[in-house]
Every structure is written in C-alpha cells, then in structure tokens.
Amino acid sequence: QVQLQQSGPGLVKPSQTLSLTCAISGDSVSSNGATWSWVRQSPSRGLEWLGRTYYRSTWYNEYAVSVRSRININPDTSKNQFSLHLTSVTPEDTAVYFCARANTRAFDIWGQGTVVTVSS
Amino acid sequence: DIVMTQSPESLAVSLGERATINCKSSQSVLYSSNNKEYLAWYQLKPGQPPKLLIYWASTRESGVPDRFSGSGSGTDFTLTISSLQAEDVAVYFCQQYCTIPWTFGQGTKVEIK
Asked: Which burial class, exposed, middle or buried, applies to B16 when counting CB atoms under 10 A from its CB (0-12, 13-18, 19+)?
C-alpha cells in the first residue's frame, strides 16, 4: 500500500523560503512508472499544479510557469522522499500544499496536506 | 496552457437523484501514445486530500462506487453521480494530465437539496 507522509512548517514569514518534505512508502521515488508532484489548493486559485520530479534513466524536473523562478523540487533517493522549496514567499502563497504520485492513472496517491500560512 | 472550464459552479440535488457536472478543455487531451483521454475527476472534502474517482475520462478507480461514472471525448467531458448519497457532498474537479502544465477545472460544489 503506497503512502505519502508530508512534513514541514505551517507558518512561514514573507520573503522567506517554504520547505516541505514528502516521504514515500510502498513505492520508490526512482520508480520508472511514476512522477512525483506538488499541488496546492486555495480559495483564490483552486487546485494548482506546481511541479514534478521523476526518474527515467536520469532525473527530470518540470515546473509551472507561475512559480518557475522560485521553485525547486528535489528527490532524495537515500531517504526515498522528495521536497518542495519555494523562495521569496508572499501571502499569495498561503494554501494547502499536497504532494502526490502520478502515473497513467493521474494523481492516484496523495499526501495528507499541509496548511501553510505566509504571515509575519 | 490547457484551460479546463467546469459547469455549473454549484448544484443542489435531492438524495437519490442524478447529478451531472461538465468539463470542457481548451484543447484536446488525447494522449497520442496510447490513444487515451488523459482526463481525471477528483472529489475533495474539507480536511482531506483529493480522491481520484475517474481516470482516462471513463475508467473508475478501484474502490469507487459505481454510481460515479465519467464520459466524453475530445474536449467535452461529464461526471455523473447516478443516485446522490449524503456522503457525496463535496467539491468535484476535473483535471487534464496530457500536457504540462497539468491543469484543473475551478471545481463544482455539490450539495443536497
């Protein structure tokens, strides 16, 4: 049974970096059949895909244009997890953040979600 | 980017009645490698992550009740709940995963009338 467990702070100050981790059990971050994404949800933006990392003989990353200059998604094979780093946050980045696994069946496994508030 | 437009924004349906949600994509979501529509439907309840209901436009995810069905092709898709139950109160989203960036519809809130 595949599970994703998120961790990270729920409060980040403006201009600082939002960092979250998603630990994978029951699958591998290096899996050839899956990709690993971060998605956020807010009343103003709805559900927004932020980016993904995946392994196909080498590592690939793809990011949404809206956050491309501020985002990094890193796999950690030693801990079988992947992380989100979003720099220079503003109150507009306040949202519930989810990690999720995708394959040909779309996002089939999700983390539990982390409520992140950007406030001083 | 492919824009996903859902309608209606909300609907209220009596218990046991049919609920129908529409989703229109601004471009085809047909994945040419396997000729499948890369269109998914999710259910979102407060305090929970989204739950995958339907993928490939019409294939029900394992464990999803058969009152949920998906249909459509090209750029027009539909999610139908054949007999609404109290536990189906939620927001429903469509999503295309054919082309990066993956994009979602704005959501449809389903309530009991």
From this structure: exposed
CA distance A36 to A117: 23
Is-cis flag, bond preceding A91, omega within 30? no
Chain A contact present for B107, CB below 8 A = yes
**Chain A: residue whose CA lies nearest to B62:** A108
Do the beta carbons of residue B6 and residue B22 sit within 8 Å? yes
Residue contact B50–A64, C-beta within 8 A: no
B36 touches chain A (CB under 8 A): yes
pLDDT in tens, chain A (120 residues): 999 999 999 999 999 999 999 999 999 999 999 999 999 999 888 999 999 999 999 999 999 999 999 999 999 999 999 999 999 999 999 999 999 999 988 999 999 999 999 999
- Where helices occur in B2-111 by DSSP H, the ranges are none
Q: Which of B36, B49, B101 sits opposite A64 (nearest CB)?
A: B101
In sequence order, the 6+-apart residues with CB closer than 8 A to the CB of A78 are: none
Q: CB of B96 within 8 A of CB of B102? A: yes
Q: Is B61 on the interface with A (CB under 8 A)?
A: yes
Residue A4 sits at φ, ψ, to 5 deg, of -120, 130
**What is the tens place of the pLDDT at every residue in B61-101?**
999 999 999 999 999 999 999 999 999 999 999 999 999 99
Whose tokens are 């229109």? That residue is: B24
